[in-house]
Amino acid sequence: MGWYNKRLAKSLWVFHISGSPCNNCDIEILDLITPKYDVERLGIKLVGSIRHADVLLITGVFNKKVAPKIRKIYEQAPKPIFVVAIGSCPSSGICFKDSYNIVQSREDVIPINMYIPGCPPKPEAMIEGVAKLMEILNG
Amino acid sequence: MKLEYLFYIFIFPGILFTTVLGLIIGWVDRKVSARFQFRVGPPFLQNFNDFFKLLGKETTLIKNSIHSLFIATPFIAFGVLSLLTTMIGVTLFYHVGFGGDIFVIMYLMMIYSVMIILGGASTGNVYSSIGAGREIKLLIADELAFIFVILVPIIKSGYQLNLENIINFQATNGAFIGSASGILAFLLGIICIQAKMTLQPFDIPEAETEIVEGPLMEYSGPPLAFWKLNHFMMYVIFPFFLISIFLGGFTLSGLGILWFILKYLGIIVVMIIIKNTNPRIRIDTALKFFWKYASPVGLLAIILAILGV
């Protein structure tokens, strides 16, 4: 599997879900494919269909309406799939953590492999997170 | 069945050569496109990594789809393209052909589009169905112009229906690109290729930002890998076909190999430039463009060819 994991590390295709965010993180994610950061040099591509994806980027506190849909998208994805939570919302729920309409334990909705905190995280932080994922895959 | 036929199909002009060259040219495409947008672009082996990665992914089947068609179409399309590249490559490099093979090539090129339509329509997904429908319309749009393009070298070579004879005719009388009708048909041919490969101004069926890669949307794992591979194989097939009918083919003597590589890269560069400088057009605009403007130009090229210009 080592050989395959190295191939996987070099071509991570990314699908992006908004789990009721404030949209700041989503804008920062799109910064990654602009000329300044250009993650295509690492083999990362933003794909539009979940069936093509290797990585799920997920932003926001999951509210109760969105949570089942996130679960459904996760189940539709071809495995192996890695879930990377972008922003402080998925990791702590920041100022929304006591709201009545959010899911209190987001790890129960989908298994999250990696958190990249920040409100929103800088694109450099996201690239570092992806690099750590690649390091794990490369062994 | 002789052993060299197997060599033709599996190694040299066939599967191995075409896939490796296609994946490399696919990298050239991505890299040049990235440079157009002032990005760095992917590393050299990116498309190989993508292909091997997709081979190891899970294949998800949709409950409401026609499973047999869904799985079979990418592999049938791969077989069709392998046959196509073997036929064109054998004629180009070994000068082996049979009468009427140019029509077989035209039909095989059409079968590839039919496979995309079947594969997209079998999933039952709305976006895939829209993509398949657009592929049908695009096929109707570009097919007439493409037939006109192919008729020009046939007429100019004295009504030869054999790809090998067309190449030999050009070897003695000069390439067809040197004449007025030839250059008209060649330019039209590049536009038709753009439509047949669904590259940028005509990427209507696979519009990635609009209908999420259309027919390929529900594919994952090895079938998707083969769809991607098929797309890259076409980067080899169509330029080789244009070279053999307009640019005088391939000669082993002297600077022949260098000339061949230059011709090939020239066509690829023109395709990439067209791809990167044009936005996607609507399907009705594409139909109007091909039927109203491109086909009359093709007809004009045919008339010029009959007049001997």
Structural class of chain A: alpha/beta
Determine the most extensive contact between two protein chains.
A-B, 20 and 31 residues
Residue windows where pLDDT falls under 50 for at least 5 positions of chain A: none
DSSP helix count of chain A? 5
Q: What is the strand content of chain B?
A: under 5%
Number of structurally distinct domains of chain A: 1
Contiguous low-pLDDT stretches of chain B (5 residues minimum) are: none
CATH topology of chain A: Rossmann fold
* Shape category of chain B: globular
N-to-C SSE series of chain B? Answer: HHHHHHHHHHHH
Q: End-to-end distance of chain A, in Å?
A: 11 Å
pLDDT averaged over residues of chain A: 86
**What's the total count of β strands of chain B?**
0
Describe the secondary-structure layout.
The complex is a heterodimer of chains A (139) and B (309).
Chain A: H1 2-10, E1 13-18, H2 24-31, E2 45-46, E3 55-59, H3 67-76, E4 82-86, H4 88-92, E5 114-116, H5 123-138
Chain B: H1 3-10, H2 15-36, H3 46-55, H4 67-94, H5 101-122, H6 126-156, H7 163-173, H8 180-196, H9 208-211, H10 222-246, H11 256-277, H12 283-307
Helix pairs in contact in B: 2-10, 2-11, 3-10, 4-5, 4-10, 5-6, 6-8, 6-12, 8-10, 8-12, 10-11
What can you tell me about this protein's structure?
The complex is a heterodimer of chains A (139) and B (309). Chain A has 139 residues and is an alpha/beta fold. Chain A has one domain (20-138): 3-Layer(aba) Sandwich (Rossmann fold). Chain A has helices at 2-10, 24-31, 67-76, 88-92, 123-138; strands at residues 13-18, 45-46, 55-59, 82-86, 114-116. In chain A, helix 3 links the parallel strand 3 and strand 4 (82-86). In chain A, helix 1 (2-10) packs antiparallel against helix 5 (123-138). Chain A is globular and about 45 Å long. The termini of chain A are close together. The model of chain A has no long low-confidence stretch (mean pLDDT 86). Chain B has helices at 3-10, 15-36, 46-55, 67-94, 101-122, 126-156, 163-173, 180-196, 208-211, 222-246, 256-277, 283-307. Chain B is mainly α and 309 residues long. Chain B starts with a helix and ends with a helix. Helices cover 73% and strands 0% of the residues of chain B. In chain B, helix 2 (15-36) crosses helix 11. The model of chain B has no long low-confidence stretch (mean pLDDT 87). Chain B has one domain (3-307). The radius of gyration of chain B is 19 Å and the shape is globular. The interface between A and B is medium-sized, with 20 and 31 residues.
